[in-house]
């Protein structure tokens, strides 16, 4: 009996070749020096086969975890899809991560292999003795192996066959692993399965609106879920040509790229759009953006001003989409054929059933504010938090998955985002755990207590604000403030680095000694707290 093959690696490469797209450009890689290199689906198929064979040669078995720790680069895509072909669990680490962030992911998942480059390997070397399960490291920018367990990408690939028999993969087979930060505890490893492909393909077609002749550009880094679900899987499973750019934000470079490469579908984030909005409108007159048909946004609320700017300056609508690491694919969105209501995330997609639920688990009606929930069972739903089944179970109530977001629904079924129900900070689309920042600050000998909150920010949506109480005998100086910032950046990432730090005499705590972030936030915002007894219960 033949079974359908759900293997994501196969769908994004070999299947496209079978469909006659072997010679079609899968990826136009544009480096930081603006040099372009094209990779056809055939190239992608052969190199991912080589990587899968290289893994087998190294004794990496199906079900084992491996990570890439790379800036945007062609090897990242090859390693990701090649390891999925081999039915390994593959994760991507944001190249800006610091030592603690790395240990919390590579260590906790017991990953056996890491693909990185020389400059980033220095961070790993420092903590490698704390990663006993990590058997091998592959460096993409060395020609010869450094040792028996620090290997050269090019040597391994040169010795690996471009033919690989991709297994017929069951849809429930684990696939992609992304860590996400919560308001308490360590980051959680969100584990997906090959079945996610179904929703990622459908949404890339119906929400991103991808068609065969499109040139598509997703600006998200592969370290986050958008970068894999919509920077790899969705578009390539449809055989679409993607542009990937190794450089960072620059308004002129971005517009030039869209014009020159004839980008027709563009998926980006509100912070980037707000940065573009701040540029002189005349800049956009210099570029011919006529090929650009469809713009989508994800990661943070999309303010109505940005939609107005898009219409007036670019002459385009911007479609807000909502999803999260756990949902694997877009769940709620604006999309072609639906009228945009500026400020709303849109309507649940297809068979996705969303609801607004009270804290006691009852479903609320139109207009009521509550927890944004989803009925379990969509194809790209995560299967667990790796090695943390109890945290996974705690996300469900009465058959609903609790997203952690607060929202309300209007009479036509459009959803409106209100904020998080927890203390997680969303800074330029990246979730930051206040707990992790507090813990990093506490590692410094000067810091006795710390409390970290999200504060509103016009550009980043939210910024990280820290309150610290020093040990007796220490003085709060600009040098100490800089030291705290650098420490958080080195331990976690520059995204988590506090934008503002305040010294306080004492931090507000509840009866059980827990720091009350909500009180800190109200004080920061200059709000009157009134009776805080109920707040204590919610902490
Ligand atoms: P992550 O799991 O890191 O992708 O972050 C997901 C979270 O980002 C969601 O739970 C929301 O809080 C936020 N988010 C994502 N998309 C949107 C959106 N379109 N509007 C508002 N918040 C969003």
Secondary structure blueprint with pairings:
Layout: H1 8-12, H2 14-21, E1 25-30, E2 36-40, H3 41-57, E3 65-69, H4 74-85, E4 89-93, H5 99-107, E5 113-116, H6 118-127, E6 136-139, E7 150-152, H7 153-158, E8 174-180, E9 188-193, H8 196-206, E10 215-218, H9 225-237, E11 241-245, H10 251-261, E12 265-268, H11 270-277, H12 282-285, E13 294-298, H13 304-314, E14 318-322, E15 332-333, E16 347-348, E17 354-357, E18 370-375, E19 384-385, H14 389-393, E20 396-397, E21 400-409, E22 415-420, E23 425-427, E24 430-432, H15 434-442, E25 447-457, E26 461-470, H16 478-491, E27 500-503, H17 517-524, H18 533-538
Parallel strand pairs: 1-11, 3-4, 3-5, 4-8, 5-6, 6-7, 10-11, 10-12, 12-13, 13-14, 26-27
Antiparallel strand pairs: 1-2, 8-9, 9-19, 14-15, 15-16, 17-18, 18-21, 20-21, 21-22, 23-24, 25-26
The structure holds adenosine monophosphate.
């Amino acid at each position: 009996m033949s079974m359908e093959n759900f293997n994501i690696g196969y769908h994004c490469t070999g299947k496209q070749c079978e469909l006659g797209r072997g010679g079609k450009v899968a990826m136009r890689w544009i480096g930081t020096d603006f040099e372009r290199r094209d990779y056809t689906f055939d190239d992608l198929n052969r190199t991912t086969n080589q990587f899968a064979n290289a893994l087998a040669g190294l004794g990496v078995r199906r079900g084992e975890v491996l990570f890439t720790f790379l800036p945007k680069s062609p090897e990242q895509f090859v390693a990701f899809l090649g390891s999925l072909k081999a039915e390994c669990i593959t994760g991507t680490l944001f190249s800006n991560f610091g030592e603690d962030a790395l240990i919390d992911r590579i260590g906790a998942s017991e990953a056996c292999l890491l693909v990185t480059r020389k400059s980033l390997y220095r961070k790993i070397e420092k903590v490698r003795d704390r990663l006993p399960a990590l058997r091998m490291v592959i460096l993409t920018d060395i020609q010869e192996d450094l040792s028996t367990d620090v290997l050269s990408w090019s040597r391994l690939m040169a010795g690996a066959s471009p033919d690989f028999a991709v297994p017929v993969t069951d849809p429930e087979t684990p696939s992609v692993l992304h860590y996400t930060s919560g308001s308490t505890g360590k980051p959680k490893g969100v584990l997906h399965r090959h079945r996610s492909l179904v929703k990622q393909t459908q949404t890339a077609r119906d929400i991103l609106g991808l068609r065969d002749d499109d040139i598509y550009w997703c600006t998200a880094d592969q370290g986050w879920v958008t970068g894999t679900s919509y920077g790899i899987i969705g578009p390539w499973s449809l055989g679409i040509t993607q542009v990937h750019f190794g450089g960072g934000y620059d308004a002129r470079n971005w517009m030039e790229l869209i014009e020159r490469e004839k980008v027709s579908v563009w998926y980006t984030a509100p912070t980037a759009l707000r940065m573009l909005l701040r540029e002189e409108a005349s800049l956009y007159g210099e570029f011919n953006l006529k090929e650009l048909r469809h713009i989508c946004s994800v990661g943070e609320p999309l303010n109505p001003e940005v939609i107005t700017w898009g219409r007036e300056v670019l002459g385009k609508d911007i479609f807000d989409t909502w999803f999260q690491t756990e949902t694997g694919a877009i769940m709620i969105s604006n999309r072609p054929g639906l009228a945009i209501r500026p400020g709303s995330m849109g309507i649940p997609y297809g068979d996705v059933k969303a609801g607004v639920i009270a804290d006691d688990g009852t479903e609320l009606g139109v207009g009521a504010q509550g927890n944004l929930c989803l009925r379990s069972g969509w194809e790209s739903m995560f299967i667990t938090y790796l090695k943390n089944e109890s945290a996974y179970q705690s996300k469900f109530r009465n058959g609903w998955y609790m997203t952690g977001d607060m929202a309300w629904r209007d009479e036509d079924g459009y959803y409106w985002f209100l904020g998080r129900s927890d203390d997680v900070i969303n800074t330029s689309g990246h979730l930051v755990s206040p707990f992790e920042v507090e813990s990093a600050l506490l590692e410094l000998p000067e810091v006795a207590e710390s409390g970290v909150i999200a504060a509103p920010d016009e550009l980043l949506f939210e910024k990280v604000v820290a309150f610290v109480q020093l040990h007796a005998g220490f003085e709060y100086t600009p040098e100490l403030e800089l030291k705290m910032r650098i420490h958080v950046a080195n331990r976690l990432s520059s995204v988590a680095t506090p934008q503002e730090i305040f010294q306080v005499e004492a931090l507000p705590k509840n009866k059980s000694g827990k720091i009350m972030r909500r009180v800190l936030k109200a004080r920061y915002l200059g709000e009157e707290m009134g009776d805080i007894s109920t707040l204590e219960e919610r902490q």
